[in-house]
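Whiteboard transcription, Tuesday session. T.W. wrote the structure tokens on the left side:
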């Protein structure tokens, strides 16, 4: 049976980043975080988690000392809700993650969009990262375009898809930079 815990050296999952991003600006409780991560929530429309997965993500963040409990408040249906806050280490890790370009085209829709929405929520400027992201995608797009253009073989649908995705991502980033 595989373990569901990871070591501190392993990267966080996107749901964990989302939880940490919600906690970055201000403390709150797990129920409020889960509400924001519902598919209809402001963060959940980009990356949604069920309530159990939200609490599992919060446990992972706590294990890594990226968040900690700072108090309790009465719950609506009885019992107390634990108020959580991002630690200094957690805040630093989130800023580092937000400022790291997404490596793979396949992760742009999920990871880059999540970074954009979390950075906005946390009021963190990621314009320098977006310039690096654009340069990285441009490099990938150029290589893919060359492969497709210079290939004597029939069109590779995967390469064509990746090429079109990279061109779309470049248009998106250009439009994003002109609207900022």
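and on the right, the sequence the group agreed on:
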């Amino acid at each position: 049976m595989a373990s569901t815990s990871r070591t501190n050296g392993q990267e966080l999952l996107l749901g964990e980043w989302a939880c940490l991003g919600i906690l970055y600006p201000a403390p709150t409780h797990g129920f409020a975080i889960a509400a924001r991560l519902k598919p209809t929530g402001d963060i959940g429309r980009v990356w949604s988690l069920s309530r159990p997965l939200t609490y599992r993500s919060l446990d992972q963040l706590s294990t890594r000392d990226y968040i900690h409990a700072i108090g309790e408040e009465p719950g609506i249906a009885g019992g107390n809700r634990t108020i959580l806050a991002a630690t200094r280490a957690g805040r630093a890790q989130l800023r580092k993650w937000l400022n790291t370009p997404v490596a793979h085209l396949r992760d742009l829709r999920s990871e880059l969009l999540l970074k954009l929405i979390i950075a906005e929520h946390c009021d963190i400027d990621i314009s320098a990262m977006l310039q690096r992201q654009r340069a990285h995608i441009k490099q990938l797009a150029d290589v893919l375009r060359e492969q497709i253009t210079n290939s004597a073989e029939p069109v590779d649908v995967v390469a064509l898809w990746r090429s079109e995705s990279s061109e779309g991502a470049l248009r998106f980033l250009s439009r994003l930079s002109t609207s900022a």
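Someone added at the bottom: The CA atoms of residues 38 and 75 lie 19 Å apart.
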